[in-house]
Design brief:
single chain; alpha/beta; D-Maltodextrin-Binding Protein, domain 2; five-stranded mixed sheet; 11 helices; DNA-binding
């Protein structure tokens, strides 16, 4: 390839790919329809391949177009982040930081980190996305999320990302006060209990499913599955369901008078890590957040 695509061509391609219509994309970009069509033809000539299939109903991506679209999204996100970081360094403009957090981080160290971070950098727009790591990884890989914190399955570390271990958290079985099994010490004695288990294809709960596969197979009532902390806690508080949570998660919810921890010691601990893109350089804002995160995790009583 003699020439590389121009930024304007990438912007035009992305708009049309997202809209599925040249007319709609032209309105979004504030250009004429013929001008946008000419830009797309020039891009296809530069790449030496057809990117769109055109019909009376709009445009769809060819196989080459789909592959190019994935790369284009990442390239444009990197350009935005690069320009924004330079502005932050040179002109102290507002800037942005998007972090993904597991519920344990949100419930424990994040309030302190956020207060310190915003006091030092009030101009930065801080956006938080909460979820288990499997739901946060796509944003990390696409560049939309700068940094994520969650539990890692040591047997199946995620690919395409950088990983920094932060702390290890013990997990426990919890129930409402007065639960019939509140004093049970043997996990396998709970095979006939009602269970609510977090749903995840990554991290601790996936690791737990493998570690306790024999127990899981013996559960007589099919467990409820959820990725919502609120749903999980409400089911435990309002019924006879049991669930598995990090030991440090119950205290911040101020439920010590409503929940009990079963004296079971058969659960493996979870390793929590910071995760960021392998392809993208970490921004200055993300590095500052990670510094605060390390310090907070070191001093917290997990």
């Amino acid at each position: 390839m003699k020439y590389l695509p121009k930024t304007a061509q990438l912007q035009a391609f992305r708009a049309v790919a997202r809209r599925g219509s040249v007319r709609s994309a032209a309105r979004e970009l504030g250009v004429t329809q013929p001008g946008l069509s000419r830009t797309l033809r020039e891009l296809e000539q530069t790449l030496g391949t057809q990117l769109f299939l055109r019909s009376s109903e709009g445009v769809t991506l060819t196989e080459a177009g789909l592959a190019f679209s994935r790369r284009t999204e990442w390239i444009m996100e990197e350009l935005r982040r690069a320009a924004e970081e330079v502005e932050q360094i040179n002109y102290f403009t507002h800037g942005r930081l998007t972090v993904g957090l597991s519920s344990l981080i949100s419930l424990t160290v994040f309030p302190q980190i956020a207060q310190t971070y915003k006091s030092a950098l009030p101009q930065v727009t801080l956006t938080v996305r909460e979820g288990q790591l499997n739901s946060l990884l796509p944003g990390i890989r696409s560049g939309e999320t700068d940094l994520a914190i969650g539990s890692i399955d040591p047997m199946r570390p995620p690919e395409g990302v950088m990983i920094e271990p932060l702390f290890t958290a013990p997990f426990c079985v919890i129930a409402r006060k007065g639960h019939p099994h509140a004093q049970e010490r043997d996990l396998f004695a709970l095979k006939d209990a009602r269970w609510l288990l977090p749903e995840s294809t990554e991290g601790y709960y996936h690791h737990l499913q493998n570690e306790l596969a024999h127990f899981y197979r013996q559960i007589s009532v099919t467990p409820l599955r959820t990725d919502s902390v609120i749903t999980g806690m409400n089911m435990v508080l309002g019924s006879d369901y049991l669930t598995i949570v990090a030991r440090a998660a119950a205290s911040p919810l101020e439920m010590a008078d409503k929940l009990v921890t079963l004296p079971i010691s058969q659960l493996p601990a979870a390793q929590y890590c910071a995760v960021w893109s392998q392809k993208s350089a970490m921004t200055t804002n993300a590095r500052r957040f990670l510094d605060l995160l390390r310090e907070a995790c070191r001093s917290y009583a997990w």
